Amino acid sequence: xxxxxxxxxxxxxxxxxxxxxxxxxxxxxxxxxxxxxxxxxxxxxxxxxxxxxxxxxxxxxxxxxxxxxxxxxxxxxxxxxxxxxxxxxxxxxxxxxxxxxxxxxxxxxxxxxxxxxxxxxxxxxxxxxxxxxxxxxxxxxxxxxxxxxxxxxxxxxxxxxxxxxxxxxxxxxxxxxxxxxxxxxxxxxxxxxxxxxxxxxxxxxxxxxxxxxxxxxxxxxxxxxxxxxxxxxxxxxxxxxxxxxxxxxxxxxxxxxxx
Amino acid sequence: xxxxxxxxxxxxxxxxxxxxxxxxxxxxxxxxxxxxxxxxxxxxxxxxxxxxxxxxxxxxxxxxxxxxxxxxxxxxxxxxxxxxxxxxxxxxxxxxxxxxxxxxxxxxxxxxxxxxxxxxxxxxxxxxxxxxxxxxxxxxxxxxxxxxxxxxxxxxxxxxxxxxxxxxxxxxxxxxxxxxxxxxxxxxxxxxxxxxxxxxxxxxxxxxxxxxxxxxxxxxxxxxxxxxxxxxxxxxxxxxxxxxxxxxxxxxxxxxxxx
Amino acid sequence: xxxxxxxxxxxxxxxxxxxxxxxxxxxxxxxxxxxxxxxxxxxxxxxxxxxxxxxxxxxxxxxxxxxxxxxxxxxxxxxxxxxxxxxxxxxxxxxxxxxxxxxxxxxxxxxxxxxxxxxxxxxxxxxxxxxxxxxxxxxxxxxxxxxxxxxxxxxxxxxxxxxxxxxxxxxxxxxxxxxxxxxxxxxxxxxxxxxxxxxxxxxxxxxxxxxxxxxxxxxxxxxxxxxxxxxxxxxxxxxxxxxxxxxxxxxxxxxxxxx
Lengths: 259, 259, 259
Prior knowledge:
Alpha-Beta Plaits, alpha+beta, Propanediol utilization microcompartment protein PduB (chains A, B, C), 5-stranded antiparallel β-sheet, 37% helix, bacterial microcompartment (chains A, B, C), homotrimer, 11 strands
């Protein structure tokens, strides 16, 4: 009986211990009482504001003089979801995207973390942009499929705005999509699949040695008719998830797919 | 008795939990029924082919017009083993190495992942190159010694071909070797050891800020008489494994040493 | 009773398993009997020397002819602590800092590993510099506060020397400080806080896409009156630790804070 018991416990324990660490764990909402703190989100994302950026910092950050206030989005895991979320925020608020930087991160994963700066003349605008971004993350993590070996990410917008333009060179106002495959080899296949699936314009291609921060990803950026872009992305997703599955467990979406 | 039982169980559990994650876990062979899929290998390596690369992808990937088909090798863990394996594939098939890119990866380890593209006029050649590469991996992971703190990697070929030339600047047709130490400090020592151990030509040196993708490695590339190259590598290995052991457990080879 | 027992054991086990992996585990001192080996330290740091660097290695490492001997510090986790420690070593010994390279590392964390080379005419000087560096690490890891989501690092010296000058552009002989926030967003806030807290000179700013090796950090370098620099750093720390805590557990110092 003792052995049986041990076995049962071991089983329970290993189940708990081996639970696949999703690459983008849900942040438990915490607060810290600072006026600079706006909130947190999926992927170790934090949202912050500075009402009056100190002139010396303004200078070393090379910010435009006209922005007294900045909104800040930073994350360990993910750049695509945060940038797409920031794109919605720019549409919804009186702010501009000042910079988008990609760290080679994802907490040991194959991809990027990010640092996004919004500029605003008024702190309430900066704060609002950060709030919208954090809220949108729930959606934009919907088509991130991850397992222990890598991830597939799809993003889509019917009308790209300035965050997508800044980060990806997307034509503003047009339907835009991106697809990421990690490890990068899978990204090559899904790029080919996507282009063949519908009549879309290829506006960019990024790989470990060019266009990424040495992440293990191939990323394709597409634009065009909104139906075609979606069709492309869906074709890419199907192939990508299948291929990624050959290297590990069944890749599961981080939240709820939206494309 | 209860306490004893708990203790015993805790012991069992911790043993299981603390098992050193080897940095290059063996892939369990899986299949996915796609014609693009060739297979998987050690180090989360995946092998893929595209029979007819879409012209738009051809363009953004800057491929030579003459390659209708490409073979693709991608991995989360390892670049050396995959490149050396690809070198054998190039010798054995009617393909060329189009590009070798190093991602800063290894799933939280100190080294690289990779993306290797073979070009071929015929898809069967591309597929064959990928198959040979995947098969050779079993051997080329033989002199990768890893523990929790880093890794030592040795690679050797009696006759370097075009993958080694493309990736490492190796003189084609001559004996060639490389040695990697991670953390990088160990790489400096084994480089010095190797050069002193035999009369070899130093053809390159890579470090975190130059020649790597910011990996925590120092890599030395050597060429020369085949006996001398091997002697150098063996000297480097002995020292490297000893030094790496001071930072963690006994570094063990991923498969079976071949040098 | 069986269920109760299982529950109790599960609790124990999960406590053990979930213990936050500090990003800079203490190295257990090991020895390896090689003359090149000096010792190990926190953060998977290893200290090594080469008495007579081989001429071919000398050349590819681009070392100055006058240094026959080199001291080597390498680490998986941390660059700031090692560089600050090396700064003390340079003051205390007859050596020079030849190079400081930052790997994108920290074993899956958001920051850097490092490779630091000391040059000396005599091996005993090189060895002494490495010894001092390893010893100082205990102190310089004192204001590194880490949790699962990132880290806050503060460093301070009343009188910067050549390691700080080489790595950070610090004015030699003056009080110098740096603060790191990871994820990078937090670094922006603490930079602003620090500058507003006291009258200091901003001498540099590094972010994922500029000045770091694509790490997920924002780093601010400050100089000035020693009291002002310390006051700045303390203000930055308080804010940084609070913000980092919103993303995970309470960030704890790796050793004992010294600022």
